[in-house]
Write a structure and sequence with these properties.
The chain is an alpha+beta fold and 354 residues long. It folds into two domains: 164 residues, Aminotransferase class 4, branched-chain amino acid transferase, N-terminal domain (D-amino Acid Aminotransferase, Chain A, domain 1); 163 residues, D-amino Acid Aminotransferase, subunit A, domain 2 (D-amino Acid Aminotransferase, Chain A, domain 2). It is built from eight helices and 18 strands. The strands form two sheets. Strands 1, 2, 3, 4, 5, 6, 7, 8 and 18 form a nine-stranded mixed sheet that branches. A hairpin with a 2-residue loop joins strand 12 and strand 13. Helix 3 packs across helix 4. The mean pLDDT is 96. Bound molecules: pyridoxal-5'-phosphate. The site of pyridoxal-5'-phosphate has 12 residues, from helix 6.
Length: 354
Amino acid sequence: MQFSTTSTTRPTPSEQREEALRVPRIGKVFTDHMVTIEWTREDGWHDASVRPREPFSIDPASAVLHYAQEIFEGMKAYAQPDGTVALFRPEENARRFNASATRMTMPSIPEALFIEAVEQLLRVDSAWVPSGQGASLYLRPFMFATESFLGVRPANCFTFCVIASPAGAYFKGGAKPIAVWVSEHYTRAARGGTGAAKCGGNYAAGLIAQAEALRHDCDQVAFLDAAEGRWIEELGGMNVFFVVDGVLVTPSLGTILPGITRDSIIRIAQRRGLDVEERPYSFDEWRADAASGRLTEAFACGTAAVIASIGKVRFGDGEFHIPVGPLTDALRDELVGIQRGVVADEFNWTWRVR
Ligand code: PLP
């Protein structure tokens, strides 16, 4: 598909951009352009354009505003030591985007077109990729229903869009261990629901639990399963791992988001000869293993934060602490090293943007 390109006539002044790259504020400052591609039932994907970033003008009856047909992805572009820019496993983002689309009765987009859209934005806004330590350019591909129609059925028109925002370290405290609040009241996903899809509605429903976590001085909420309220599922925006008797344990896929970081960690750990178990792990086990010392480390992982040690767990009746350990650091170093081009990429995960 041909992309039409219109460059902005009002680029961010370079001093302002340099300042935004020096002190990145993810999600608050954006690059100058965006990519959009339209889809209609009659014509499929069409009108691909790279254009100045600007507000959308949508009808008040647009389906997304009423029935929440919206999905998104989160990925990062990393400056490489040789001055090029690389994406990390973008085919996996494209694949997951289409899995989310299928779940939400939205059109799938050819994987190559998804990646091309991201690359087009990176080419036009290449000056926005930060090179500072821990910094990257966060990319947000998303799709929403634009059809003006009040009725509960899949929409007939959608807009796909990619925007970008320079990112620094995710948590305010940098690489400090995070505190997690276990929500015993709210759940995130149930069997047959949308837990495995990256749709906006999941996050809207989780905000109240995340607010509860913040009220308890925690960085993130941990959700338990909806059926029994017993099994750890994932955090508000991250997957979770436990090191128990030297084995890396992580909740099985099903109602959780199949994280690309999660998958990468499993593969790095297995190649290092570690035992990895994808299995249900209960909150009771977590507490007991922390108390007995069988649990030596726990960490959260995702594109935004990469890998963050969990140092404290709080819940209705109290809290417990978890030591920070060497495995978390070693896995983080290897993963970040591959992403930034300073560790050999034996998995072939790096995607050079041309
Ligand atoms: N779980 C949830 C709910 C998320 O929002 C995210 C982040 O996107 C993840 C897990 C981690 O996924 P990934 O590693 O692909 O960023």
